Amino acid sequence: MGRRRTQGTTPDTKNSTVSWGRRIARKKYKYLLLLPSFICLFIFAYIPMAGIYIAFADYKLGQGIFEAKFVGLDHFVKFFKDASGVSMRVFRNTIGINLFSLMLGILFPCTFALFLNEVRSTRFKRFIQTVTFFPFFLSPVVIYALAYNFFSSNSGLLNRILTNMGLIKSNINFLGDSKWSWPLIIFLNLWKGFGYNSVVYIAAITGISQEQYDSAKIDGAGRFACMRHITLPNIMPTVVVLLILSVGSIVGGDFNMMYMFTNQLNRDSMEVFSTYVYRMGLQKLRFSFATAASLVLSIISLSLTLGANAISRKVNNHAIF
Fold it and tell me: Helices marked H in the chain — which ranges?
């Protein structure tokens, strides 16, 4: 006699087909705690996305959003076929400044964290962490005031030092000369985020098991060998996560910093996407064009983030999602 095949589902199948309603009911209190955050996110992040419509319409101030005449992709065509070359110049500035800021913002804090971890004095480590972390709390306005006092062409401390040392004959306009725009803003971005990023890496290093270092020392490994073969591989997942989260900002950047340091003298080399959208939308009242440019920015940013995550998963099996 053949074995009679029973109908129905196995326990594993039953568990896998539990409805979403039952799963939510089991953890209803946790979801209730998250509910206010979801509501705020929906109200302030998703509902305003209906305004994207004006990127495809000829919107005028005073009109209702959906009363504007639909023009399709006209504003996108104008953005990419800008005869004056402003769009491409802004794209170049955005990618250049933010890409260098991103690379140096990972390299230097990571290196700093590796060497600071080798310092034995706890008090000295805390002091250095506090000093390097402090600029992160400064607003762009305060940073500009400090930069003006240090880099000003009239009374800046750096120009005084260089003049007294006989290294220059006339003062250098660091804040207005286009050739100094990229080095200046990249340096300030690195200085501002240096302490915060290094603390993240130091926290990752703290989580490494001491047994790994003890085993390596028994085998004769020195400090640099431990740093290379233990510390660095263990913090790579943290480096990858920060890289993926930061890649999207390559086409965005810190609007407040860029706005504070952009002026009529250095606009050609300092203006980026965020300040360009602000100038087109709120100063020239070209709302539809500014929305179209901002939508392009968002699409590129999302694509870069997804691409970086996919590449990271294939290369070293580390990814966010």
Answer: 11-16, 20-26, 28-41, 74-80, 86-116, 122-133, 140-151, 157-164, 181-206, 210-218, 223-226, 232-247, 255-261, 267-270, 273-278, 287-316
pLDDT exceeds 90 at position 182: yes
Instruction: Write the DSSP assignment of 156-184 as a string of letters.
Output: -HHHHHHHHTTS-SS---TTT-GGGHHHH
- Look at residue 130 and give its three-state secondary structure: helix
Q: Given the structure tokens 């340096």, which residue do they identify?
A: 187
Query: Which residues sit opposite 57 in a β-bridge?
Result: 70
How far apart are alpha carbons 202 and 117 in whole angstroms?
Answer: 7
Torsion of CA 268, 269, 275, 280, to 10 degrees: 20
* Phi, psi angle pair for 159, to nearest 5°: -65, -35
Q: Count CB neighbours of 134 within 10 A.
A: 10
Amino acid at 228: R
37 band by pLDDT with thresholds 50, 70 and 90: very high
Query: Residue for token digits 């920015």?
Result: 297
Q: What is the pTM of this model?
A: 0.80
